[in-house]
Amino acid sequence: MKKWISYKSVLQSEKFDVIIIGSGISGLTTAALLAQNNFKVLVLEKHFKVGGFTHTFKRKQYEWDVGIHYIGEVHNKKSHTRKLFDNITGGNLDWAKMDENYDRIIFPDQSYNFIAPKDNFIKKLSEYFPEEKIAITNYIRLLGVQSKNSKNFFASKLLPKWLYLLVGKKMTKSFFKNSDKTTNDVLDELTNNKKLKSVLCGQWGDYGLPPKRSSFAMHAMVARHYLDGANYPIGGSRMIAEHTTDFIESLGGKVVVNADVNEIIVKRNKAIGVRLKNGDELMANKVVSSAGLVNTIKTFLRNYSKNDKQISQLNKVKPTESYICLYIGLNKTAEELNLKTTNLWIYPGYDHDQNVINYQSDPNGEFPVVYVSFPSAKDPDWNKNHPGCATMEAITLGKWDWYKEWEGKPWKKRGESYEKFKETMSKKILEVVYKHVPEIEKAMDYYELSTPLSVRDMAHYPKGEMYGLDHSSKRFRQDWIRPKSEVKNLFLTGQDITTVGLTSALFSGLLTASFIIKKNLMKSL
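Now predict its structure.
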């Protein structure tokens, strides 16, 4: 495991071309691409580990990823996603292909398997719904069309404002045709079969909004992403940050942890550096924030005198829901327990939106979804690095308000009532998991629950948000969300600038670096 370099005040004596706040994949991608183009970069990470949602943590002999469960497209070395990962890691990041049955959508009466590639997806879904083959085929075609149209939408974010006003509407017209509709609206146009629509929305947890609230554009990008199959980083998700950091450092860049940024220094409407919580000031020609729009605007720019406009714009969008995750350690191997790589999506019924409404009004009610992942089965190096054991993760929706009474208390010191509430939620999740994966009950050795407060403290989302900003139709209409901020020499990157997920955050780094360099780096892929 890589040893991270801790911040030292001596860095104040250096001048950097670009300082990047946050070491999630968007910040690291921006840094790697800029470093390749001869920019002197410094990445500042508040946490004691690099990687954001790609980092891992350990308890006893177990290790879990905190946010990366499966990635599409990277098994294809010609895909843009694979090429960009290879680019920022020096080609040192390896991937393991998961089973062709990458997701299983489970309802009380039946389970439905999502099979790669897309021809097999259509074939399998048509076996479940033989009278709906035309609708299923049209659905797959529409996913491709919408995802293709998204390229111009994201490319438009690179245009200067004056040029966007001239050509932006034309560039994005096709994208907004269905982006302005909810996922449910578009599926209603394809079929009247309620069960089929619910099955097709079985991955809504990947973007955090049920079908009547999510933009179809978001649904399409996620669903299409996995049609050719899913993958997992060999050695675990931390290898993404480790290889990228090594590559940045090989190019003369610096990545440091325990560097808590307090404020972006702005003079005459120009970002000139950052001030840390300890008072240190670090100077740069440009600053990039990979810390999310809310943190950037409401925290880092809180003393900026012309910030009212940005705060007003931010009020037009909402954060996503929070979540809880149960990390499970088992004292037998995945092979011994016959655990597979297929993810499980477990639902209490076919009405996703009503399931969410029911749960959020009653924490004692049924979970609206439980997503179960088997990282130790996905990683071919697991047994070499962690012999004799296996891990699982079970994730479900949370609600920030249920944890507010403990929000002012420090990590690991929130008291007996907090631990008791966590234990109640843990056992409730385990009931669901044991029902669908009964073989693990006798191998149960350890479990630990992360809550929205854990997410706030570790990922620095103010209310434990799952995926930053909500991916509603309204969100995609916010043309002010782009890599260039209102402040001169201050740039933004991350999933708030593009959309949810690792791949999207990866490409947001490419967009931001392209804007700074004034070169379309996508072409070089």
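The chain has three domains: 9-54+73-94+234-316+478-524, 119-228, 320-459.
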